[in-house]
Each structure stands twice: as C-alpha cells, then as structure tokens.
Design goal:
Blueprint: E1 3-5, H1 9-17, E2 24-26, H2 29-38, E3 44-47, H3 53-66, E4 71-76, H4 81-90, E5 94-97, H5 101-120, E6 130-135, H6 143-155, E7 162-166, H7 174-177, H8 198-202, E8 206-209, E9 212-215, H9 229-240, E10 245-249, H10 256-264, E11 267-273, H11 276-291, E12 299-304, H12 314-321, E13 325-329, H13 333-340, H14 345-348, H15 353-366, H16 381-394
Helix pairs in contact: 3-4, 6-15, 9-10, 15-16
Bound molecules: adenosine-5'-diphosphate (ADP) and magnesium ion.
Adenosine-5'-diphosphate is lined by residues 136, 139-145, 304-305, 329, 331-332, 335-336, 339.
C-alpha cells in the first residue's frame, strides 16, 4: 500500500484521506527505505509538502533505478514549471499541487497502481494478505479468545486462507486454547532473518482446520529474547504471500514484538472491557498509537464481556475512547466452554450471539458484508433469532 514520507503530522491526515485504505506514513526517507525493504509489493511513494525539493529529487533518482516499479509522487504547495521540469528529469512520475490535492493525489496513486500491475504482468497480480493485529494494553481481557474466533470468522468457512500468529512470545496460549500440539513454533525460525520465506514457514505452521493454520509461540518464555523485530517483520511479510489474512495475537504491552506487528499491521483490533482501569489504559494506548501513527483509520474496537449490568454504556465507551464500537461480545460460559473443548465458539455454534459478533468484527476488518451461516447450518433456531437482534445492534461502525 502507498507510503507517504512526511514529518509534519498536520500535513499527513489530508494526504492519507485522498489515498486508498491501508496507506501508511513514515517521517523520513530512511524510514521509507526500511519500509520498501519490507514491502516488495509497494507501488507508490508520496513525498509530502514539507520535505525539500532536493531531498525529493534525490529520492526519486535513487528509486528510479533501484525500484522502477515504485512511482514517486511529489506533493507541493504549487506545481511551478521549474519544479515540474526538475521532477521530470529526476523520474518523479507525478507532481500534485496541494490546492487540488484531493483528486490529484487520488488519481496519481491510481495511475501508479496501474503502472505497477502492468509492469508486474498477469502472474504478479495476486493480492497480498493483510495483517490484522489484536491488541489490548490489559491482560485477561480476551485478546486470545478474540484472536482465535476472529481468525476462524475470517476464514469464512474455508473461502479464505488465514494464519494465526501467536506473538505473545513469553506466555502465548493460542495453541493450547485451540488444543493444538505444535511440533514446531516460531522458535525454529530464530536466526533466519535473511532466509525466511513462505516455504520455510509452512514447515513451522500447525494446522487447525483446512483454512486456519497457527504459528505457535515458543514453548519456553526465555526464547523470546532471541526473536528479533526484524525476524518478526520478515515472517509477517512472508506470510502475506500465502495467506489472505494474518491475525496476530499479542502480549498486553507495547513490547518489541507488539510494536513490530503494529508497524506491519493493516488493521488493528483493540479489545476493551467495561471497567474503568481497562478503559483508561485503552485510551492511553490509542493516544500512543496516534503518536506513532499506527493503523489510523483502520482500528476496530471490540467490547468483550459487554454486559448491560456493569453501569458503563456503549455510548459512554465510545465518547471516552473517541471511536465507534465495531462489535460487542457478552460474557458467556459458552465461549469459555467452547474454547476449553478445543472447538472455539465460531466453529462450534456459528449462530451463537458471540459468533455473530465475531462475524461482525470480521466484516469490519475486511470491509465486506457480514457473513453468517444460513438457517440450515444453524445449531438452534432460538439462538438464531436472538443473534439477529444483536447483529443489528452491533453494526454501528
Ligand atoms: N466473552 C467472554 N465470556 C466468557 N469468558 C471469556 C470471554 N472472553 C474471554 N473469556 C475467558 O477469559 C479468560 C481470559 O481470556 P483470554 O482470551 O485468554 O485473554 P487475554 O488473551 O487477553 O489474556 C479465558 O479463560 C477466556 O476463556
Ligand atoms: Mg492471551
């Protein structure tokens, strides 16, 4: 997805608004190079208005040879003739004036994409998978339960390939939650920063169902120290080649693994519960994500254990956190029981209200309509009518 190089945060938002969802911003040319190293499929670099013309021209000269499939688009206050001439010589593909920036930039990015597709040819047209990170600054709020059920919902009953990555590297419990007994984990990738690819990772994955595989966390907490951020980003990037969605379960802190996942992430699910300490920490986490410019406009708030009786309404949560709730899951013994039996609720009872809520969350993440099994696949008619009501209530994002 296109990347903007711009250090001035006020300039970034209007540019991002004119670009496709999933576009990203970095503060410097160095960060842009790091981004390009990790995203072989990048097709457009947008140079923001506060970077000097010299910097922009040098960058374009460099990319013109090294990465001819990447179009450099320059955003300026005004597109003066002198700028146009020098830009053309440096290999900048488009110059967009800020005054007309909306449509100009959108069209320039579209043209960059068309060129990229043409240069890659028909075989290169496969859409890369998207990384979905499930995060909360609090432990025990239901991150793992949500990751597992969201990953299953995203498979859309086998229509999509999904990989669930356990990045709670010290205390990961995805495998045990799904009653899987992995023979390999991320541990076997330690030291392979330069050789990670899909074929190698496939040997480390544990299959849960046809369309859901898991990259388990190490069996021992001390292995965490040897798993570098570079390894994590290369793993996530390699998985994009083979899966439609990569769901990442995280530890409850901004540790290196979580920050790396968030840096790679296309969509971020934030899990909150209806208690004041958690909401306070989620608010601080959202502010931190704003500062780091992580997943802006691609955040989905999941309220777990969202029961009516606790005294904090959904509206109150939305006003405290300043974002809409994408989906709500009530406290239900069925959820924990299904997990404990090794068949998470989404698989065990597809028409359970919680399963519908996870389907809604999946829809919020994919941007596609909610996909719920038809009545013939329902486990119980009564459950279905209950869930329909909840389905309507929760669709508020
Ligand atoms: N909505 C829910 N209803 C009932 N139990 C839940 C719900 N969400 C999570 N749990 C249970 O709460 C515990 C902690 O959940 P978990 O997903 O492991 O949290 P985290 O990964 O954030 O630490 C687990 O035993 C899980 O089964
Ligand atoms: Mg967990």
């Amino acid at each position: 997805m296109p990347v903007i190089v711009e250090a001035d945060s006020a300039s970034i938002a209007p540019l991002l608004a004119a670009m496709p969802t999933g576009s990203h911003s970095v503060a410097s040319i160095d960060r842009m190079h790091a981004w390009l190293d990790q995203h072989a499929d990048e097709y457009a670099v947008v140079i923001g208005p506060t970077l000097s013309l010299e910097t922009a021209l040098d960058c374009a000269e460099d990319l013109r040879i090294k990465r001819p499939t990447v179009s450099v688009i320059l955003v300026r206050e005004r597109a003066e003739t002198d700028i146009l001439t020098r830009s053309m010589h440096a290999g900048i593909r488009d110059v967009v004036a800020i005054s007309n920036e909306d449509k100009g930039l959108t069209k320039a990015v579209e043209r960059a994409h068309q060129l990229y597709m043409a240069l890659r040819g028909p075989g290169g047209a496969r859409q890369l998978g998207r990384v979905v990170t499930v995060f909360s600054p609090k432990g025990g709020v239901g991150k793992t339960t949500s990751s597992v059920n969201l990953a299953l919902a995203l498979t859309d009953r086998g229509a999509r390939k999904v990989c669930l990555v356990d990045l709670d590297l010290a205390f990961g419990d995805v495998a045990i939650t799904m009653q899987l007994f992995p023979t390999h984990s991320i541990e076997q990738a330690v030291g392979s920063e330069d050789s990670v690819d899909l074929a190698m990772l496939e040997g480390l994955l544990t299959r849960h169902e046809d369309s859901l595989t898991v990259l388990a966390a190490p069996a021992h907490p001390d292995v965490r120290e040897r798993i570098t951020p570079l390894l994590i980003s290369r793993i996530l990037r390699a998985l994009r080649d083979g899966f439609d969605y990569i769901v990442v379960d995280t530890s409850p802190s901004f540790d290196d693994a979580t920050l790396t996942a968030l840096d790679e992430t296309d969509e971020c699910v934030i899990v909150a519960t209806l208690d004041v300490p958690t909401l306070k920490n989620v608010k601080v986490a959202l502010e931190t994500m704003d500062m780091l410019n992580i997943a802006r406009g691609h955040r989905h708030l999941l309220l777990n254990r969202a029961d009516d009786a606790v005294g904090i309404s959904v509206e109150k949560v939305e006003s405290i956190l300043g974002m809409p709730v994408s989906s709500q899951v009530a406290s239900a013994m069925d959820i924990a029981a299904a997990t404990n039996s090794g068949t998470p609720i989404v698989s065990q009872k597809p028409n359970h209200p919680a399963s519908i809520a996870y389907a809604e969350l999946a829809a919020s993440v994919t941007g596609e309509p909610v996909s719920i099994p038809t009545a013939s696949a329902a486990s119980a008619p009564a459950e279905q009518s209950r869930s329909r009501g909840l389905f309507r209530r929760g669709r508020n994002s």
